[in-house]
Each structure stands twice: as structure tokens, then as C-alpha cells.
Amino acid sequence: MIDRRFLLASAAGLAAFTAFRWLGLGGPANADDKVPEKFEVQKTPEEWRKQLTPEQYSILREAGTERPFSSPLNKEKRKGTFACAGCDLPLYSSETKFESGTGWPSFYQALPNALIEKTDRTFMMVRTETLCRRCGGHLGHVFDDGPKPTGLRYCMNGLALTFKPDASAT
Fold it and tell me: Which residues are catalytic?
């Protein structure tokens, strides 16, 4: 016969195992994540530190986040292209930028072959992290609460991006 202690211990063990796996400990976060082991642009941490500001390094290379409403790119309204601050890969067209009210530059669609997405299980939640396809730099996260036509909100760190205005926009 199963006693109450055994049942409670089994339930606690199952809960701990589930939490352990849900937090991404003890194995890959998601088997569907297709993050390459090597990126086209490879640099040592020292080379990245020479190229990037300390804040950019924190975001792009250590998955940090800038303070909301701190990026000048929030107010950028000209036509042009937003590129990766690490490797200059074009990521977003200004035509897909919108005001999300979150405090970070937001887009509803990335340019083709610009991003890699992976499961992020930090801070006791599951989110989809976006990385630059060419250098692997952390850009931000994508959520499914954006506007039409995609319904997506790519919430990006402004310091992870540069803006290049179209020639006609300057």
C-alpha cells in the first residue's frame, strides 16, 4: 500500500524535475533551436570589447538589456535600415518599425535571413530570444502581441542596432 509520505515525496520529486527541465537546466532548452556552433563573424571577447562600447558588449555578447526609453532609435522616423551593431548585417526595414510603448525599438518583421531565434528560459519565464544570424549577437526578444500583418513584436535593444538612412531620407 502507498502511504501519504511516499505519494508527497513522489509528487515533490516530479515537480522538481519538471521545474529543472523547464528552466533549461540539464539539457538543451529546445530541440528546435538551430543555433550554430560557429558564426560567420568570429571574434575573441577582447576583439569585441575593442569594437563595442561597454554597454553594447553587455547587450550583444552577454545578453544584457538596456534601460527602457533610453535609446535614440525609439524616435528614429526616417526611411532606412536598422543593422546589427556588431557586424553591420541589415536586420529590419524602417517600414516595419512601430511604436509599441514598451520603451525599446520595435518591429513587426525582420529582413529575410537576418535572425536566429532560440528559446530563452531566464527570469523564470519562456521567451524567444533573437540573435544576429551573422555574428550571434543578442538583439532582444520576439513576442506574439504585435500589429498586423504578422502579429509579431520584435522588441530590440537600440544599442544592438545601428541606423542607416536611405539616401533620399538625408
Answer: 155
Residues 6 or more apart whose Cβ sits within 8 Å of residue 8: none
pLDDT digits (tens, 9 = 90+) for 57-67: 999 999 999 99
Give, as one character, the DSSP assignment of residue 84: E
Taking the C-alpha atoms of residue 77 and residue 81, their distance in angstroms, rounded to an integer, is 11
Q: What is the phi/psi pair of residue 158, to 5°?
A: -60, -35
Instruction: Work out the mean pLDDT of the chain and round it to a whole number.
Output: 86
Q: Which residue has the cell 558588449?
A: 57
Write the burial class of residue 113 (CB in 10 Å: 0-12 exposed, 13-18 middle, 19+ buried).
exposed
Model-wide pTM > 0.85: no
Nearest CA-CA partner of 156 in 135, 136, 131: 131
**Are 129 and 65 contacting, i.e. CB atoms less than 8 angstroms apart?**
no
Provide DSSP, 4-24.
HHHHHHHHHHHHHHHHHHHTT
C-alpha distances out from residue 12 to 2, 4, 121, Å: 15, 12, 21
**CB distance 137 to 40 below 8 Å:** no
